[in-house]
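Reopening this one. Same input as before:
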Amino acid sequence: MPDGVNDVIARIDIAAAIDILIVSLAIYWLLLLIQGTTAMTVLRGAAVLLLGAFVLSRVFDLRMLNWILRNSLTGLVLATLVIFQPEIRRALERLGRTGLRSVLGRREHRDAIDVVVRVATGMARAHTGALIIFERETGLQDVIDTGIPIDATLTAELIATIFHPNSPLHDGAVVVRGDRVIAAGTTLPLSESDLPADYGMRHRAALGLAERTDAVVVVVSEERGTTSLASNGRMVPDVDEPRLNRQLHRLFGLELEEAPVDAATAS
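Same output, byte for byte:
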């Protein structure tokens, strides 16, 4: 083994190993954070550009390019902050969350999920558009303030009434906190990500909120008659009733309750 390699190995102690592990986990976590987003494409393009510039500068001894690469660290840091601002904000928000959900709230979340899954599936069959937001750790008061206060118990009838085509609130979004509808007719920030052409403003609004907060958004498309789910900056399209139910339970850390088996059927 070369002496240089032996010297490097000899310098690795427990502190160095911990240092390497922390940096590796941080890089892995950041890559997971931007996976499936436009930021990953931008990062890949920037890496190819920098690698190509570095190889060219070394092979052809381009002094000016070498000087620019050596002195561009500050500019690269500033560019990273600007380009990846939404992802950095989402990462800091995740760090600021406690990640603890009260045991008392689990029953409320389970009941709310059951209602939303049932009513969203029915509205999809009827081609009635809807936008239903589940608030989680990140407060959505800024979004709530754009709509009409409701503060009523979540029921399928209430959701169906709000999103009835003749309702003045049907074009906005409903915010659900626990098992209560807090507001309706709210306005959401639009995503700038590339979405399929057949996705409408509801999908772009749902993804826009999911990119900025940890909210979970259920989207019912009146044109396509399908249900989609936006969370953690990603859109899961065309989810059927069982899959929507599973995904919502997973996002809220709930276990699916097994349906009771009829004794006569079992025998």
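So the earlier flakiness isn't reproducible anymore. For the record, Confidence is low (pLDDT under 50) at residues 98-104, 259-267.
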